[in-house]
Specification:
By secondary structure, the protein is an alpha+beta fold. It contains nine helices and 32 strands. The site of one 2-acetamido-2-deoxy-beta-D-glucopyranose (NAG) has 5 residues, from loops.
Length: 473
């Protein structure tokens, strides 16, 4: 659909096409039929348009955890997804945890007596929404893991692990003794000492034959924990491509349910992450496309796309958060609603925005959110507002409307990159504006995953930029 006007423009008079294009963007509204936006209960439909780019062989399908494309329990038990209000409460906890970490305020919890003390905090992980299936070990066994740009060390639950130590999961537990490529990391190694620098080190443990092995421990921001053996293994992304000697955690004791997925894939910027471990081969770059709904798939890819990827990226500089190598920070420069630039002083955005896969709703500086809400509500004045749902204060009752006219919302980043969020999937979360405002303009913001839907988002630490390619899934 999107490419046909472009094709016309090649065939027809250039000025005529220019008029149409300008006319559309000046209008700045999109008519959304209600039937297509209510996608509940659809079967898993499309496999993503994973590009045929020869440099993107390392691309795996990615699914929404509550959708029909995510693997279900072998027992056939249907896990009821949590309510929107519950998802929003978890999301708020993740957002405030990321903000306090990024601003150097430590939020170390008092460890309770029952669990040995994991020494590192990852982001709150109960709001994570996207999963991929990777092959662990030799022969490779499929393991479905939550993806997270807010933490680094990856792990899966491992045998031997009984019900009191491991939560029930969808796939059989990973069994290291059945893999010819599994090895625990010995205690007296640089790799184990490096874990201490990342504050994941949980000391050493002696196995049955007296070998001293390296333990890792993570406590996440929502107090879920994983403790086990730091290990290396072969990770298979596609049948053709595997990563040898991948360092990960073989989880022997977990607290939390992780929604019954087998573990977690850390995509942050610190040395323990998949991205950093493969930087020599893939340049410290990865990308993903989050699908518009929960009944289709997107993809996760390592490396940068080659120049012949369809469509083009817009780039903005990637910054680090001092002392927090995990996070990816970009700078917002402006917001438009319905094609009109909002009047927001640029200084409001000076703290930057963490771009994150695991936060749902975007948190803007307070001043920016007020301006956005005013403009959005005014453009949507034809529809009755509902009372707030948790902190989402701009929710609509679309009952009785056969279609809804939604204004475009564009984000402009440092350097001029401007992206039109997908309408409606990138703007509305269950009929609510998927943004919230911070209590001040003095803390870092977060770009949540709703805004990122349908874009290929390329995190390229090697080249120091983040790219956005529209219509990628
Ligand atoms: C998918 O999303 C819709 C709408 O957001 C929701 O009602 C539904 O419960 C979700 N899950 C499945 C499995 O369809
Ligand atoms: C203990 O660890 C060492 C080193 O990896 C390994 O060779 C040995 O088989 C392990 N013993 C048991 C009982 O797992
Ligand atoms: C595997 O990685 C560890 C560090 O993570 C390194 O010490 C070791 O030499 C590597 N082994 C091989 C075979 O590359
Ligand atoms: C939404 O609007 C419909 C039709 O006007 C009304 O019947 C319904 O009660 C409203 N729902 C809520 C939650 O206000
Ligand atoms: C959109 O909905 C309005 C009122 O519900 C209706 O009058 C109009 O014809 C619809 N437009 C389209 C293109 O479906």
């Amino acid at each position: 659909m999107a490419s046909s006007p472009l094709l016309l423009c090649v065939l027809l008079l250039y000025t005529y096409c220019l008029t149409i294009a300008l006319g559309n963007s000046e209008h700045g509204f999109v008519l959304v039929p209600r039937s297509s936006s209510a996608s509940s209960g659809l079967p898993c439909s499309s496999v993503s348009q994973v590009t045929s780019d020869p440099n993107r062989v390392l691309s795996v399908p990615l699914a929404h955890r509550y959708g029909a494309c995510a693997p279900s329990s072998p027992s056939g038990a249907t896990d009821r997804p949590p309510s929107l209000a519950e998802r929003l409460r978890r999301d708020r906890a993740r957002r405030s945890h990321l903000i306090s970490k990024a601003s150097g305020r430590s939020s170390i919890s008092q460890s309770d007596a029952g669990v040995s003390i994991p020494t590192s905090l990852g982001a709150a992980v109960d709001s994570l929404e996207y999963v991929v299936t990777l092959g662990f070990g030799t022969p490779a066994v499929p393991q479905t893991v939550l993806i997270d740009t807010g933490s680094d060390l990856s792990w899966v639950q491992c045998q031997p692990c009984d019900a009191s130590a491991c939560y029930p999961q969808k796939d059989p537990l990973f069994d290291p003794s059945a893999s010819s490529t599994y090895a625990p990391v010995p205690c007296d190694t640089q790799a184990c000492r490096d874990l201490a620098a990342g504050s994941y080190n949980n000391g050493c443990t002696t196995n049955a034959t007296g070998a001293s092995l390296c333990r890792y421990g993570i406590e996440y921001g929502n107090f879920d924990t994983t403790v086990g053996l730091y290990s290396t293994e072969t990770l298979t992304l596609t049948p053709a491509v595997s990563i040898t000697n991948f360092s990960f955690g073989c989880g022997l004791r977990q607290r939390g349910t992780f929604d019954r997925f087998d573990g977690l894939l850390g995509l942050g910027g610190a040395p323990e992450s998949l991205v950093s471990q493969t930087a020599e081969t893939y340049g410290g770059a990865f990308s993903y496309c989050l699908p518009p709904g929960n009944s289709s798939t997107g993809f996760l890819a390592l490396g940068t796309p080659s120049n012949n990827t369809p469509g083009s990226f817009q780039f903005t500089p990637l910054h680090g958060v001092p002392g927090q190598a995990t996070f990816y920070l970009v700078t917002l420069a402006g917001i438009s609603v319905g094609g009109k630039q909002l009047d927001i002083p640029p200084a409001v955005f000076s703290k930057g925005m963490i771009i994150d896969s695991g936060t749902v709703v975007t948190g803007l500086p307070g001043t920016a959110y007020s301006a956005l809400r005013t403009a959005f509500r005014s453009a949507m004045s034809a529809y009755p507002l509902l009372p707030p749902n948790e902190e989402l204060d701009t929710c609509y009752n679309f009952t009785g409307f056969s279609n809804v006219t939604v204004p475009t919302v564009s984000l402009t980043f440092d350097g001029g990159a401007t992206i039109d969020l997908d309408v409606p999937s990138g703007i509305l979360l269950e009929d609510c504006l998927a943004f919230v405002g911070g209590s001040s303009d003095r803390e870092v913001g977060i770009i949540g995953n709703v805004n990122q839907r349908t874009f290929e988002v390329l995190y390229d630490s090697g080249r120091g930029h983040v790219g956005f390619r529209p219509g990628a899934c």
